[in-house]
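2024-03-11 09:14:02 INFO queue: dequeued item Carboxypeptidase-like regulatory domain-containing protein, len=284
2024-03-11 09:14:02 INFO validating residues
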Amino acid sequence: MPHKLTFLLPLLLTSLSLRAQTTVLEGRVLNTKTGEPVPFATLGVPHRSIGTVADEQGRYLLRLPAGLTDTLVVTSVGFSREVVLPRALAAGQREFRLLPQEQALRDVVVEHRRVHPALLGRNSAKGDILWLAGSSGKETVDDEWGWEFGTLLKPAKRTYLEEFHVFLATNTYEHLRFRLNLYAVEQGRPGRVLVTRDIQLICTNKEHGWQTIDLRPYALELEARPVFATIQWLQSEKKDPWDKYFSIPVTRQPKQVVVERENSEAAWTTHPMQPSLYFTVMTE
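2024-03-11 09:14:37 INFO prediction written
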């Protein structure tokens, strides 16, 4: 998504071309056990740039190319992954149910350990370029939801996460919602999800600058091994999305890796850069 604003005309022409060829699916994502909505569940087609995110009530609107016969995957933090086969979609299935995963609760006690405060990541607000994301050049925004962006981090010792920080250099949205994700490193890319609780960051009134999440209530602990930390775009206002965008500074540093994907099931891409994104931590 970098340099997205540079190509408004091609985006416009592509949008006009695809609009008549799109099938729109609308429905809900529900909790299998309770029947309640699963807020901000993600829906995506594996290895394609096709997907979206449900709203607070589990309602979704998914735009698919006409004639698409691929599998749909529905996921959410703390739930099992649901695979929806093409024949189920063709038969009219629009309600998807996710099974909650059993979560073993444990207490993390750090008071009696020898720990000290530290930073993990890049805490500079300046960068070589701005990594742009948004809906500029488009009449819709919901098919951008699910976009994910982050970086590789390398804790040297056991680390306890206290706060998460990301710098928004620009933000023209009245409302933005992100999810914080942590992944194990598998073959140089994000793999197994390491968090079991939904951790969100909400920005209102075009907020920019450093945005922070207090992580102490989540008792997040990292081993001394590489990990990917990302933010996932969950929601923004739908009104007048034509010229809306936000940006994050990045700097060229070959030893760090930026990762990005278009939605929850798209392929990850990697870049030799590091974003303005970091954690304040306690480390052993």
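2024-03-11 09:14:37 INFO annotate: Residues 1-20, 104-110 have pLDDT under 50 and may be disordered.
2024-03-11 09:14:38 INFO item closed
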